[in-house]
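Blackboard transcription, Thursday session:
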Amino acid sequence: MVNRVLVWAAANPKLQQQVTENPIARRAAHRFVAGEQLQEALEAAAELNSHGIGSILDLLGEGVEDLSGVGHAVAEYEEATQAIAARGLNSTISIKLSQLGQTVDRGACVANLNRILDRAQALGVLVEVDMEDSSLVPDTLDLFREAATAHPQTRLAIQAMLRRTPLDLETLAPLKPRVRLVKGAYAEPIQVAHQGKAEIRAQFKYLTDWLFRHGSDPAFGTHDDELIAYARRSAAAAGRGPQEFEFQFLYGIRRDLQQRLVDQGHRVRVYIPFGSAWYPYLTRRMAERPANLAFFLRALAGR
Ligand code: FDA
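(Written on the board underneath:)
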C-alpha cells in the first residue's frame, strides 16, 4: 500500500512541485542528498575520504526529455570529473543513460557517453553507469558493451531482482565486466522481476559467486547485512582479499557499517547524489523503507 502511494507520488508532477519548493522538505532531503550544488557533493566526498571511504558522485536527474537538459547534465558531469581530479579525491562518477538522451536521441546519447568516458579517462577518473527501469535494460546493456570495449574500467549496475539478469551476465562474461550488483530499485511486474525478499536475496547470492568467478573487481551495492556477510564469504572462498572487491552504500544510510567495514580492511564507496532533481530519488528511498517515509513526514510536520 505504502509502495503504491509512493509510486503514485513519484509520478505526480504537482506533488513534486509542492514538495521540492517546500524549504522544510528540502532540508529533510539533505539526509539522503548532499545538496543541490556540485560543491556540496565535493565537500561530502572529501569528508568521507578523510575517513578512508571513497565516493561516487551522482548528478540527480533521469528520463531527460529534451536535449537542452541533456547538455546541462553532460556539462555538470564534466565539471564534476574535473573537480575530482583537481582536488585529488577518491571518487568516481555515476551516470544514468536516460540523462544523456537515451530515450530522446540515441546517437546523441552515445556521443555524450563517449565524450564523458574520454574526458574522465584522460583525468584518471572512473565512470559507473546506473541501471534504470526494465524498459531501458536491453539498450543499456548494448551501450555498456560498446563502452566497455574501449573503456574496460567502466562499471555497470546490474539488478539482482530481474529474472533476465543471470543470462545477461553470461552474455557479458567475455568482457570480464566490472559490475555493481544491486537488488534493483524500480517497481517491476512479476513477469519481469522477483518480488519476494528471499528470492531476490537468493539471486543476489548466486550473482555474487558468479562475479567472483567471471567479473573484474566486483562491487556490491547493498545495506543488507546478510548479503554483505555472504559477499565476504564468497570472496574468501574465491581466494580474494578484502581489497579485491568493494562495498558500496547510499549517502546517509548505515554510516556506522561503512566505517566498520573500512576498519576491517575493506574497500567502501558511498554514492553521493546531488542536484535539484532529487524528488524521484527520494521517493525510491522512502519506498524501500517506511522508516524513511516517517522521518520525512515528521520533518514536514516540524517534529
Ligand atoms: P534492503 O532494502 O532490503 O535493506 C537492507 C537493510 O539496509 C535494511 O533493513 C536497513 O537496515 C538498511 N537500509 C536499506 N535501505 C535503506 C534506506 N533507504 N534507508 C535506511 N536504511 C536502509 N538500484 C537500481 O535499480 N539501479 C542502480 O543503478 C542502483 N545503484 C545503487 C548504488 C548503490 C551504491 C546502492 C547502495 C544502491 C543502488 N541501487 C540501485 C539501489 C538498490 O537497488 C536498492 O534499491 C537499495 O540498495 C536497497 O536495497 P538493499 O540491498 O540495501 O536492501
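Lecturer's comment: DSSP finds 13 helices and eight strands in the chain.
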